[in-house]
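Tip: read the tokens left to right.
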């Protein structure tokens, strides 16, 4: 045991160091180009508090790769990097030197994908893919049960590749309709672990606390840079995002993303239209400046291919507005005059660019386009 770390624990210096480093993250909210109004800054402060909670779970509570736990790193009150309201995210700490088994039942959720990744946002702002498989590639029995082996050595059936530097597995369960679908019920185990976890040590505490702070700094800084880059593109427009850039931070390889900044007044609306190609899934959603999904528990801030009403031609027409225009496919701004637009195509044959037109809300006649 390091005498220096032990001394910092017993004197309280470690806690002071943690709090001092965490305090510095607030400077990111006041970076050049960020919105300085009270509304957006309040959401920014809440965002940092949410990242702190996520970081402590990631690096302190659930960070033993010998005894991994599938937990939810992003959800209704922790939102990271354009989180999808249709997703049930799960994550576990793993290590490419070990082998693992994920087992459970498939459920009825529309899309189920598993990815292994190296590195993390706390270290270098990346989550490099090291393996990927989705439910369409798995052998699943008649009762919906299956197992996946995670290992660096190739397996013949239901294998999720890892590399020696792999340290995370991410699960994405994507719903068409949360009210009707049942998520997969999953557990993970290390196949060559010790009998039980070691007790907390001062060194582990220091690593966990400092890892959490670096996670807050790295995550907030990474997606703040993205948001600032989006603001350089045309306003109220969607632009295809660099696929390699998305992959480098842990994006699903089957997804292509469109992003853009929006700005509308209380008396305005955005009409967003797109052709719908052959695809596994698509969705549209709104984010705030910090790239958090808006409050989807109480507002309809997103839609997808199963929920949106399509036109007879097969096109889809969405309306973003502060108040219900009395038309199909209304996307609620949840009180935001500005923020980020986001469109996903998953497993699509092509990736059409949705068109956007800003109009006065009064110009939208109820029943138009239905």
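Filled-in amino acids:
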């Amino acid at each position: 045991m390091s005498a220096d770390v032990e001394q910092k624990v017993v004197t309280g210096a470690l806690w002071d160091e943690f709090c001092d480093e965490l305090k510095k993250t607030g400077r990111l909210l006041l970076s050049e180009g960020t919105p300085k109004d009270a509304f957006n800054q309040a959401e920014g402060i809440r965002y940092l508090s949410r990242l702190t909670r996520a970081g402590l779970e990631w690096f302190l509570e659930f960070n033993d790769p010998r005894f991994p736990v599938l937990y939810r790193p992003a959800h209704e009150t922790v939102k990271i990097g354009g989180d999808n309201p249709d997703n049930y995210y799960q994550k576990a700490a793993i290590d490419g030197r070990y082998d693992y088994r994920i087992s459970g039942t498939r459920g009825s959720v529309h899309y189920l994908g598993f990815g292994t990744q190296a590195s993390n946002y706390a270290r270098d702002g990346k989550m490099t893919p090291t393996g990927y498989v989705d439910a369409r590639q798995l052998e699943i029995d008649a009762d919906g049960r299956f197992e996946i082996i995670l290992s660096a050595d190739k397996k013949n059936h239901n294998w999720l590749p890892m590399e020696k530097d792999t340290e995370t597995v991410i699960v994405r369960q994507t719903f068409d309709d949360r009210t009707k679908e049942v998520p997969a019920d999953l557990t993970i185990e290390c196949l060559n672990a010790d009998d039980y976890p070691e007790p907390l040590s001062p060194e582990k505490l220091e690593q966990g606390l400092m890892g959490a702070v670096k996670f807050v700094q790295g995550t907030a800084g990474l997606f703040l840079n993205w948001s600032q880059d989006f603001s350089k593109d045309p306003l109220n427009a969607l632009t295809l995002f660099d696929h390699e850039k998305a992959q480098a931070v842990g994006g699903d390889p089957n997804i292509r993303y469109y992003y853009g900044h929006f700005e509308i007044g209380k008396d305005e609306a955005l009409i967003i239209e797109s052709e719908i190609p052959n695809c596994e899934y698509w969705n549209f959603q709104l984010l705030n400046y910090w790239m958090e999904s808006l409050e989807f528990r109480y507002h309809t801030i997103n839609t997808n291919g199963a929920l949106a009403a399509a036109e007879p031609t097969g096109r889809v027409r969405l309306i973003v507005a502060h108040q219900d225009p009395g038309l199909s496919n209304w996307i609620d701004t949840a009180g935001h005059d500005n923020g980020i637009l986001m469109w996903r195509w998953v497993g699509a044959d092509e990736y059409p660019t949705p068109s956007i037109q800003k109009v006065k809300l009064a110009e939208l006649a109820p029943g138009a386009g239905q």
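The chain has a mean pLDDT of 96. The chain has three domains: 1-64+197-230, 65-195, 234-363.
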